[in-house]
Amino acid sequence: MHRTGPVVYTLIWASLMFLTWLTVWVAGIPLGAWNVVVALGIATVKASLVGLFFMHLIEEGKLTWGYLSLTGFTLLLMLGLILFDQQMIGITG
User: How many C-beta atoms lie closer than 10 Å to residue 83's C-beta?
Assistant: First the structure.
C-alpha cells in the first residue's frame, strides 16, 4: 500500500528540479577537482530521492534494506580498492 500522496510527489519533483539547477550552477564555479565531487554528491541525493519515493523503497521491509546496504557497501569497497590501486600505481610507476 502506497502512503505517499500528490503533495509529497510535488515536493520531491520540486527538490529534483532545484538540485538539477544547483548542479548546473555549481558546474560554472571553478572548484578544480572538487567540481566532480560536488556533482556526484548532488547526483547521489537525487538518485536517493528517486529510489526512496518514486520507487517506493521507503516503504520496504528490513530484508530489502539489508540488500541495499550490502550493495552500497560493495560499491564503496570496490571504489576504495580502485583508489588504493591508483595510489600504488602513482607510488611505483
Answer: 10
